[in-house]
Amino acid sequence: MRALRVILVFALAVALIAPASVDAWFWNSRTPEPTMQHQSSAVAAAAEELASAPHVEESVVGDSSMQSIDLTTLYRARSLSCATCQRMLAFFDEYLLTALLDVAAAQAKQTPSAFRTNYGALESTIEEAVAHVCSAQSIATNHTMRKSCERMVERHEEALVALYYAHGESMSESEDEGKLGAALCGAKGVLNAGCDDALARLNVQQLLNVEREAAFVRKEDLDPSARAPQEEAKYKSEPERGTTKAGEVQKIVAIDFYKRVIIDRNRDALVYFAFPTKAPEFDFAYAQTHALVAEFMEDSDLLVGTLNVELNDVPPPYNSWASTPSVMLYPANKKENPRWIPLRSQAGEYITGESAPTLADVLTMISKRTQNEKTKKAADWALVDATAEQLHSSRSRENKEEL
């Protein structure tokens, strides 16, 4: 009996310590925010994060390496919070590097008075940089990213400042942006940005290299016929469907995505990447708006289509954003640079019917981004002809019930 009691006590202890597993679509869950009790604990946590962040070799981004291809894919698939965090990293790298080097030099000289002077200057410089990071040109010019930045600073300002204090205390004469990137933007980073660790560990120069690679699309990606026979891509796909009549939403599947959306370079395409059973509220709301777009743009050259991501693979490199419900505009002659129609929910919030872009959101983006005069004119006329309810309703189930 005594041995049995020991086993039961041990099993109970393991059960209390072991973390619960989470198996949910990330747009239906929130990540808990870390809380900082006081400055000393924040600095200690930041120092621990810096110490545990693995080092990244400069050769990780090579022109032909498999690692480079993987990093490019990760870069294209970055969330809004990850992209925002890495632009913040670039800003801090530019404006705080000199101050951090001054502190390191004071430590190396082991002159307490000089150290105190530089540390006080560093404190002021860090706090000023954190206060103005969202005004950096690369962030402020993007409204959605600026709002994301402001939320990050508001929620994690103490931890952010503590991270740079810890970095200033620990850095040597050579800057190690790789460790700082992971501590700032990684899965366990202080800004809770959720970047993949392989991407978060890159320093600013490596990120620029990946960005340049991500901007290019291979000829084989635009034209599947250019592939060698042994490289023929295989995708999960529904059967190919014929085109429907003008004014109706076209059904797009994996095997005809390139042909209908990408290869036709002279035609704008608006594609809704749908998750009808995994995000039913969003699908219920936006599908109605998408049908209205097709109806109002009937006389234009715009392709309005829907691809069910649950039943079809999205061919690369266009699959990097197809992990959540998305509405993408592929402008004519710029198919390699599609435009995402922003959702109406904020980053980190649940995606529901209220998150769906409105008719006004979609028509405005089409009018702004298309180079086709006929399509632009149709979008502008639709903004005038549609009723206020058609333009601005989210068409969620909640709204339907209120009516």
Order of helices and strands: HHHHHHHHHHHEHEHEEEHHHH
Overall mean confidence score, pLDDT = 74
Largest sheet strand order:
1-3-2-4-5
User: Whole-Å distance between the termini?
Assistant: 67 Å
Structural class: mainly alpha
Shape: elongated
Note the total helix count: 17
Which blocks of ≥5 consecutive residues have pLDDT under 50? 8-40, 53-69
Task: Tell me the fraction of residues in β-strands, as a range.
Answer: 5-15%
* Number of DSSP-assigned strands: 5
The helix content, as a percent range, equals 40-55%
The biggest beta sheet, please? 5 strands, mixed
Q: Rg to the nearest angstrom?
A: 25 Å
Number of domains: 2
Could you describe the 3D structure shown?
The chain has 403 residues and is mainly α. Helix content is 52%, strand content 5%. The chain has a five-stranded mixed sheet with strand order 1-3-2-4-5. It is elongated and about 75 Å long.
Summed up:
This protein is mainly alpha-helical and 403 residues long. Helix content is 52%, strand content 5%. A 5-stranded mixed sheet has the order 1-3-2-4-5.
